[in-house]
Task: structure prediction
Amino acid sequence: MLKDDILKALLEAGDYCSGQALCERFHVTRTAVWKAVARLRDEGYTIEARQNRGYRLQNTEYLLSQASLDEAFAAQNFLKRWVFLQQTDSTNLEVKRAAAAGDWGPTLFVAEEQTAGRGRRGRNWSSPPGSGIWMSLLLRPKLRPERASVLTLVTALAVTDGIREATGLEAAIKWPNDVVVKGKKVAGILTEMSTDMDRIEFVVIGIGINVNTESFPEEIQSVATSLAIEQGKRAARTPIIAAIWKHFAAYERLFEATGSFAALKERYETLLANRNREVRVLDPDGEYTGTAIGITEEGELLVLRDDQSLTAVRSGEVSVR
Ligand code: BT5
Result:
């Protein structure tokens, strides 16, 4: 699409590009260039236009692009492939399509906007352009399917440490798949898998993070927050993405080498927002309350129930009272 070509040209130039040069390069009219620039502005890009000089992209450190990912991942060897998309339905679906099409090694999809972002159990995930990180990893771990849920915990560790490293905010984990700052949700994780007999064919690890979001849809206003709201200034997204996958690679290596969550348990418990807090467990067999006291080596939440019995919660919903 012309607007994507123009965006790339402006990013590469890092300075003014004359309208005439863009017309000649892409064999289009001035009006076509002007319309493409207007569409980019609608998507949230700040593009300055000056007579006799042309167009210039501003605030490039806040932009996501293939070029910024290429730079961020040049020196690592965990991800084998990374793909930036201006818009997609859902990066988790992007991974599933890629997995069906080829036997890729760890591949990451990052989108500027999702039109059908999803949470667990088919819930909606708000993913507007220009302000968030919406990304999914295709992984083929050598794990038994029943152990795959531990990858959500490994991911939560990586997201929390990545956010802490890149912003200094005191992010914490709300077991099993939320990352919170001061009790409000900044990130959610959706892990899905495809199995073949009793073997994992592939796993999709989807991560959504509100980075520079200024306001939320009414239904989530009271529970959601963004890194920008919490730190009082905008954050660049690429360094956060890079920090998360750096931590993920290290944690995943440890998890795979030992075949157990034991090596990560201590760090996880340090970051666990629910620890020593009263929680309500929405068990399908009946709700109960208790105190979350830690995590098991299988990644279950240990809850000391009000009747003093100890339960290891495998899945289900937990809310902090
Ligand atoms: C999650 O589900 O928290 C998992 C979210 C995973 C999103 C990523 S983005 C990249 C990848 N591609 C996808 O399509 N998905 C993944 P859950 O625990 O079910 O939480 C969903 C609930 O969070 C919704 O019902 C809302 O109440 C709330 N919510 C929706 N959008 C939100 C947002 N942007 N920030 C905070 N809360 C939100």
